[in-house]
Amino acid sequence: AMWTTKGLRKALDKLLAEFRPDVVISTYPLYAYLFRDIQKRRLGVKMPFLTIITDSVGVNSAWHRCLSDAFLVADEPTADLLVSRGVPAEIIHALGFPFRGISPRRARCPARRLHPGSCCSCLRRRCISR
């Protein structure tokens, strides 16, 4: 039953309770729905939830029907598409296509130089601070 929605929700709930992350980042649309369901059941649990949309331009609506604290997309046309579908522009961030290695933007981040491998505080400020 691990692969049923109920089983996945239970497993995700257990992981969140055990690891208590500062932020949850998802690259799969189903997890946003499960995460929101878990938050409803556990009143008082507040963790930012970021969605990295791996589609470009032709975005399946499953990605954005469940609201996220921030949507990270590859390019401006994808961001524009989300806005046209009703997603608030202020929570959409076009960060470029991911690739292996350090981008110039990432290399300039002061937090990256101080704490290599850490979650970049520049990303945190752009995406989840409000």
UniProtKB/TrEMBL annotation:
GO cellular component: membrane
GO biological process, one term: glycolipid biosynthetic process
Keyword Ribosomal protein: no
GO molecular function: hexosyltransferase activity
InterPro entries: Diacylglyc_glucosyltr_N, Glycosyltransf_28_UgtP
Domain Diacylglycerol glucosyltransferase N-terminal as annotated: residue spans: 9-98
Keywords noted in UniProt: Glycosyltransferase, Transferase
Family per similarity comment: Belongs to the glycosyltransferase 28 family.
Protein name: MGDG_synth
